[in-house]
Design goal:
- About 35% of the residues lie in helices and about 20% in strands.
- The strands form six sheets. It has an eight-stranded parallel beta barrel with strand order 10-11-14-18-21-22-23-24, surrounded by six helices. A five-stranded antiparallel sheet has the order 15-17-16-19-20. Strands 3-9-8-5 form a four-stranded mixed sheet.
- With about 700 residues, the chain is α/β, with parallel strands linked by helices.
Length: about 700
């Protein structure tokens, strides 16, 4: 690789080499073709040495193009701005206003370091100022006057650490729930916001203080079987499938009577039938919306209009995208990129006429969001009434699907022709291709990080805590070109991203948790810990020897962590114990030969033995179900083992323990099998085997709650 290309990659934050997180770590040298691809997609030509030289000069000159940066992101102990001045001009005044437009009583201290540069024979100098006197974190409006002209920017002042609720002064526990999987006598075959209200009440009665949820964001309207909560079409809005249609003010009993027969089959099935339940809900929602339109003088209609105005352009784009997709998908295949050119962006030539001709349908999609948020807000009211110390613990997906409203609405924000993924690690030795859109670090900064800020705020709404999926993306993200296996890491401005998370955490009073299973850069965990971002600890990964050694004792778990036995991507305890996951992987060709399969079973025997030994050492077996045998060959399921395992992790030093109902209820099927689609495995579809109304009296639930409460 040429020295100049290597330098260009370094300046652009394109990794030229990296190490994976596999069982045996492997170093990768990134090819020149991959580096050139990403440099080009980021907007910098690199076809030959001369183009690279021009791009390097372009990068060096970038800060001197504008008087002010689009945003200055700082920690409160050091607030600093720089100003680029044309030759011989001077700063006349600098003013700072808070979010309420109140002028701040601060001082600006000019630093000695002054950088000068000549661009196209014009001279510029960059002056740096320290701002003294800012007392509160927040967003401030910066106004700098040079002679006869004013320039504006934003100063984002972050606290030293992310928010931590007062309730976390001692160890807490709660449940990790896939809301869609909740079975109840009254829901329509998929968990909904009314179920979530009941879960909150159940939590409070059981002594729990947190409910962890998968992402609740809106998914595809036209293809409801695309059910992965991590493949949203917009992380700014909610999935209407969670609406309890019987709680809509415009609902009439006759709406349900017409479909009772269909509902019975949907409700009784083992798996969620998205292609049936979602269209049924939409039909009822359509009827309710038409009834609302007949009451335009009502308070409810006025609330709807106010909601639409408050959500503004973001809601406009989502509703328009959904309406377009509904009308275009029967005619063309390939998503929004295959639409007529005049419809491929919210600013395209045909959009105005389209809106005029489809306004009522567009408003219907807005109505679904209006009702979803109303019901979700009611959940938060119950959380407050029950005085849960954390309450809802929401989940923010690392990215958004490329065939999405987010991507269509602002596609210039994303790096073209690529998708996010992950290199090999201990759990996924072949790596992963998620196919998610990736923000361009440069475009994000140009937009003053507003797209990222809006996503954080939307998902902190009603949240006491927020899980950031693949939190390493604040620093870097593994990105793979389309139709290619080789990728590399693209780096972001880690300090800026971390400060914005801390600021939004403070403003929204939301605890931050970072999912960091996978390829974690050296020093990364220590950095986020210093900013009060909690980690995730999972029993299966809290082991020595890269997953081959013994299980860590509870007292050796990290204190500032949310701990659990597993995740939605891992086997429930009983499935793991019997090795059903190994058999499943073999049947799907994920284990390719008998030798590897036999080795997997032998390792599992060893793992079972080490788990039993750890449970014995921790003295967590229930007294009326003490271990009566080894069972390391999986010949039986030790009575009380799920209680012992829950107690083991509950006993840990971690500040929060999240229990999984799948373990309480002895489930032997996995909710999601990474690396597969629904043609191979029914991902995101498995319902809980017990109705919510019966859960409190289920013996597995009762015994496990008691085991946890003994330790917490």
């Amino acid at each position: 690789m040429s020295t100049k290309l290597n330098l260009l990659a370094e300046k652009l934050g394109i990794a030229t080499s990296f190490c994976d997180a596999g069982m045996v770590q492997k170093n990768y040298a990134v090819s020149e073709d991959t580096i050139r691809f990403f440099a080009t997609e980021l907007g910098f030509k690199c076809g030959d040495e001369q183009e690279i030289e021009t791009s390097l000069q372009q990068i060096d000159n970038m800060r001197f193009i504008n008087v002010l940066s689009p945003i200055y992101v700082c920690k409160i102990d050091l607030v600093k701005i720089d100003v680029v001045l044309p030759d011989k001009q001077k700063v006349s005044s600098i003013r700072l206003k808070d979010a309420n437009h109140k002028l701040q009583d601060v001082s600006f201290l000019l630093q000695e370091e002054i950088e000068e540069k000549t661009i196209n024979k014009s001279k510029f100098r960059k002056e740096t100022y320290i701002i003294k006197g800012i007392r509160e974190p927040g967003y401030y409006e910066l106004d700098v006057r040079l002679e006869d002209r004013n320039y504006k920017s934003i100063v984002a002042v972050a606290p030293q650490k992310c928010y931590e609720t007062e309730g976390m002064d001692h160890k807490l526990w709660g449940f990790a729930i896939q809301l869609y999987s909740v079975r109840s006598k009254r829901n329509w075959g998929v968990g909904d916001f009314t179920d979530l209200k009941e879960l909150v009440k159940l939590c409070a009665k059981s002594g729990a203080n947190v409910i962890g949820l998968n992402p609740l964001n809106v998914l595809s309207h036209d293809f409801p079987e695309n059910a992965s909560p991590y493949q949203s079409i917009s992380r700014l809005f909610l999935n209407p499938i969670y609406i309890d249609v019987e709680q809509i003010p415009e609902f009439e009993n006759a709406d349900k009577q017409l479909i009772e027969g269909i509902l019975a089959g949907i409700k009784s099935s083992e798996y969620i039938q998205y292609n049936k339940v979602y269209p049924l809900k939409v039909k009822v929602l359509e009827k309710c919306f038409k009834r609302l339109l007949k009451k335009k003088t009502s308070a409810r209609y006025k609330d709807f209009i106010k909601y639409c105005q408050t959500k503004g352009a973001d809601l406009d784009k989502l509703a328009l995208f959904q309406c377009l997709y509904e009308s275009e998908s029967p005619k063309v295949w390939g998503g929004w990129r295959a639409w007529p050119e005049e419809l491929r962006s919210p600013y395209a030539s045909g959009i105005s006429d389209y809106i005029s001709n489809h306004q009522e349908r567009i408003d219907f999609f807005k109505f679904m969001q209006f009702e979803a948020e109303r019901q979700f807000d009611e959940v938060k009211t119950i959380v407050d009434q029950q005085n849960l110390k954390i309450g809802l613990y929401r989940d923010l997906a690392v990215g958004v699907g490329k065939d999405s409203a987010e991507y269509w609405g602002d596609n210039e924000l994303f790096i073209p022709k690529c998708g996010a993924g992950a290199p090999p690690d201990a759990f996924f030795p072949c790596g992963q291709q998620w196919g998610l859109g990736v923000f361009s670090p440069y475009k994000l900064k140009e937009h003053a990080y507003e797209p990222f800020i809006k996503i954080l705020r939307a998902n902190m709404h009603n949240s006491g805590a927020l899980r950031m999926d693949h939190v390493m993306s604040l620093m870097r993200l593994y990105v793979i070109p389309e139709n290619c296996d080789e990728g590399t890491y693209i780096y972001f401005n880690f300090a800026d991203m971390l400060n914005i998370v801390a600021l939004e955490s403070h403003l929204n009073k939301c605890v931050i948790v970072g999912e960091s299973i996978g390829n974690v850069p050296e020093g990364f965990i220590e950095t986020i810990r210093s900013r009060n971002i909690h980690s995730l600890s999972v029993l299966w990964s809290e082991r020595s020897g890269a997953g081959w050694g013994g299980f860590l004792a509870p007292q050796h778990y990290p204190e500032h962590a949310f701990a659990s036995v597993g995740t939605h991507d891992m086997s429930p305890l009983k499935m793991w114990w019997f090795g059903f996951d190994i058999e499943l992987a073999s049947s799907l060709g994920m284990i390719t030969n008998d030798t590897d399969k036999a080795n997997a079973y032998h390792k599992r025997e060893n793992d079972r033995g080490m788990l039993l030994a750890s449970l014995d050492a921790a003295n967590v077996w229930p007294q009326d179900r003490l271990r009566s045998g080894n069972f390391i060959y999986g010949e039986n399921y030790p009575e009380g083992i799920e209680e012992a395992v829950c107690a083991y992790v509950a006993k840990s030093s971690s500040i929060v323990f999240l229990a999984q109902l799948e373990d309480f209820l002895h489930m032997t099927k996995q909710q999601n099998l990474p690396g597969t689609d629904r043609d191979k495995h029914p991902n995101w579809r498995l319902k809980l085997p017990v109705d919510l109304e019966n859960l409190e009296n289920d013996i597995g639930y009762v015994r496990n709650v008691l085991a946890i409460r003994k330790e917490r």
